C-alpha cells in the first residue's frame, strides 16, 4: 500500500513539474519569439476580437447600415476579427433570421480583411445546426457556440452538441465557455478531446479567471486558440499565454486593446503594457466592473452602447427588458470616458 501511495505521489509530482515547465516555456515563448514563428496555423482566430454590438433603429429594428459602419469602424481601429451575435451582440434577443442578417452584413463589410466569428446562443441541436449551415453559406469564418443552456444538459450531451454544430458548419468552431450564462463549462481535458477530434480550434474563456486560459493552453497547447473572454484581467491573461481577447470592453476601446495585446504579443514589453493599462485603460475597466449598484444596475449593455455613442458611434439602444441609462448614470460614465479619451462628448 505504501509503495502504491509513493507511486501516486511521484506521478503527482511529475505532473506538477510538467506544469511548471510548461508555464516557464510559455513565458519564454511570449517574450522571445514573434507570434508568426511560434503559432500553429491550425489554431483558430487570435488577437483582439470585439464581441460586436448589434445596432437597432428607433423602432427596435435591425439597422444593417449602422452594423456595416460599426464593422468598418472596428477594422479601422486595427482589430484582428469580429464576432457578431454573441452575448454583447444581444444574440439571445435576436431571431435566427435576424442573426443571419447581422452576420451577413458583417461578412460583406469585412471583405476578408478580418475573420468573422458568428455567435450562436441556443439549446436545440437541430436549430443550432441549421444556423451553422446558414452562417457557413454567407461566409462566416467560424461559429462562437455557447454551450446549450437553460436545461443544462450533462457534459457528454453538451460535447455532442458541439460536435454536431461543427459537422454542420463543415469545420472546427469556437466553444464559448461561459459558466455565468450557460450554468456550466467544459474543463481543459474535455476541450482537448474536442480539439483532438477536430471539432474545435478555439475557445472563449468567459469565466474571468486568467488561469482558465493558462490551464487550457497547458493541456491543449497550440491546438486551441484561447481567447480571454471577460473584461477585468486581459493583461494578466496575455502574460500567461492567452491568444487574444474576445469580450465586451473591446467595443469601447478597440484601439487601446490592440495596442495592449501588441505590446505583449509582439514587442514583449510588459512595462509599457502596464503603463498603458494604468494610464488609459484601468479607469473604464473599473467602471464596468464596479461602478454599479445592487442587481447590476445599470446593466452593462446600455453602459457599452452609451460609451460608443460618446465616441460618435451610434448603435441605438439595447432591446428590452434592458433600457437606456438615466441621465445621472450617463454623467458618471462620461467622467470615466474622459479619463480614457480626450475627445468624447456627452450625449
**Beta fraction of the residues?**
5-15%
CATH class of the domain at 32-269: Alpha Beta
- Please bin the fraction of helical residues: 40-55%
Order of helices and strands: HHEHEHEHEHEHHEHEHEHHHHH
Named CATH topology of the domain at 32-269 = TIM Barrel
Largest sheet, in brief, is:
8 strands, parallel
Mean pLDDT: 90
Low-confidence stretches: 13-41
Brief summary:
The chain is α/β, with parallel strands linked by helices and 347 residues long.
Can you walk through the features of this model?
Helices cover 52% and strands 10% of the residues. Strand 7, helix 10 and strand 8 form a beta-alpha-beta unit. It contains 15 helices and eight strands. It has a domain of 238 residues: TIM Barrel (Alpha-Beta Barrel), CATH 3.20.20.70. The protein has an eight-stranded parallel beta sheet with strand order 2-1-8-7-6-5-4-3. By secondary structure, the protein is of the alpha/beta class.
Outline the secondary-structure elements.
Blueprint: H1 2-32, H2 35-38, E1 47-52, H3 64-76, E2 83-84, H4 96-110, E3 117-120, H5 125-137, E4 142-146, H6 155-169, E5 173-177, H7 179-182, H8 188-196, E6 200-205, H9 210-220, E7 225-228, H10 234-239, E8 244-247, H11 249-252, H12 254-265, H13 270-290, H14 300-309, H15 327-338
Parallel strand pairs: 1-2, 1-8, 3-4, 4-5, 5-6, 6-7, 7-8
Helix pairs in contact: 3-4, 5-6, 8-9, 12-13
